[in-house]
Amino acid sequence: MPRRSSDEFGNLTDAFNRMVGRIKDMIRTREQLLVDVSHELRSPLSRLKVAVQFVGEADIRARMVADLGALDIMIGELLELERLRDGVGIKATRQNLVALLDEVVEGFHDRSPGVHFERAATEILVNVDAERIRTVFRNLLENAVKYSLPESLPVEVFATQDSDSVIVRVTDDGPGIPEDDKTNLFEPFFRVDRSRSKKTGGYGLGLSIAKRIVEAHGGTIAVANNVTRGASFVVTLPMPG
């Protein structure tokens, strides 16, 4: 905030700006620590992958391989978060977003409760990194399906555009998001379901990556609970120039 006076309000402004600076430094330090640790884990993880092949008992070896694979995925996702900072790593080309969404939705055709894609048009052009945008919507649909209830209606995907933006809404019929959790939902490692069951497993990185990808494209992502039941994630992307 700019300092506009030399009285107590000016002193308050200085104190506020110092606080903001310290918070930014703290966040940068935390994120850099995660990245540094992730890089350092790569080498011992590679050695463990080789060593585990010499474990004699097949069942124990299979469990160890699965655990190492899960660790490898988590490290990869953390490094992906860093690569996406400030838009680094984004290679945007002109794409038909409807076709990209069709591909992603097709991957969930056999997943209960199903996914229905409502198209406002057959072609919506955007400048995006195609594979990264697929990752965004795969993550959103994975969460929507994962947290659906046995009696839930199919997940709804709706895509449209206006004069200056493209909007994609992913709506589920699950339990919704607790109000206290909304502000932290896109933070790394945050999980609405604190229990790590087989049904709701994961590392709490999917939504963080989705947010980083969308923002790297100059867009936004938001979540809101539905009036009846479930939650809706809304991704807004800029129209191509």
Characterization of this structure:
- Helices cover 45% and strands 17% of the residues.
- It has 241 residues and is of the alpha+beta class.
- The protein has two domains: 8-83, Signal transduction histidine kinase, dimerisation/phosphotransfer (DHp) domain (Helix Hairpins, Orthogonal Bundle); 93-238, 2-Layer Sandwich (Heat Shock Protein 90), CATH 3.30.565.10.
- Helix 4 packs antiparallel against helix 5.
- The longest helix has 44 residues, at 8-51.
- It is globular, with a radius of gyration of 21 Å.
Q: What brief labels describe this structure?
A:
single chain; 241 residues; Helix Hairpins; Heat Shock Protein 90; 45% helix
Quickly describe the structure:
This protein has helices at 8-51, 58-83, 97-106, 130-146, 206-216, and strands at 93-96, 115-119, 125-128, 155-161, 165-171, 220-225, 231-238.
Number of domains: 2
End-to-end Cα distance, whole Å, is 32 Å
Question: Low-confidence parts, pLDDT < 50 over ≥5 residues?
Answer: 195-199
How many H/I helices? 5
Strand share of the residues? 15-25%
Globular, elongated, flat, extended or rod-shaped: what is the shape?
Answer: globular
Structural class: alpha+beta
Percent helix, as a range, is: 40-55%
Order of helices and strands: HHEHEEHEEHEE
Please count the beta strands (DSSP E, at least 2 residues each). 7
Q: Taking Cα atoms only, what radius of gyration do you get, to the nearest Å?
A: 21 Å
CATH architecture of the largest domain: 2-Layer Sandwich
